[in-house]
Fold this protein.
Amino acid sequence: MSDTILETEGLTKEFMGFVAVGDVSLKVRRGGIHGLIGPNGAGKTTCFNLLTKFLQPTRGRIQYDGRDITGMKPAEVARLGLVRSFQISAVFPHLTVLENVRVALQRERGGSFDFWRSDGLLKRYDDRARALLADVGLTGYETLPAGELPYGRKRALEIATTLAMEPQMMLLDEPTAGMTHEDVDRTVALVKRVAAGRTVLLVEHNLKVVSGLCDRITVLTRGRVLAEGDYQSVAKNPEVIAAYLGTEAHTVTEGVPV
């Protein structure tokens, strides 16, 4: 089994001549937490959309777990174990917390999702759903409509539904965006916990979160790879400092908002 679980070669996405992602070659090590960071407009979310096939690349190649997935559809790569979350909250607000996780667990039924069937048919998923909710700290919230969850807890629910897909690799798009300090600390602990036994690639603006979580970091700017390495080496890179702060007279420090 290769140490590299996800690899891109020359990954490029153009929109009417504008290069949103340009010639990105990325290697993500199996079993680690890899951060994808950069200033606003650097191409991070576009890169995520390419990796999970919500966008097709203009050119380049994507290989996941030894398989070329460049031409696959989002559902196909999800079934292979490459599953993502989104920047914007993606829960069913009028379903309960438990029902949200049950919907995700129904992936084993293929294309059949029993949204409106009787509870009796779906109760076989309850134990697994409750176990996933316990994993993300949502025990006691099972009967609450998901739309009524506090923001930080709602993001925890999204991670629970992502885990329900039994991913080998999770792609988390700004998991702590808009959170209070307390929620950020809770989410960092949660990501560390769920990363055990799987690979995580995350986009994150909070550099304190990045420094505390990530084994390796790739910095994008203007759609291209600017630097790569561990946090300490990347934070001292003059080009990275210039990209974030517009000057080489400062040092990138933990917690700098980007």
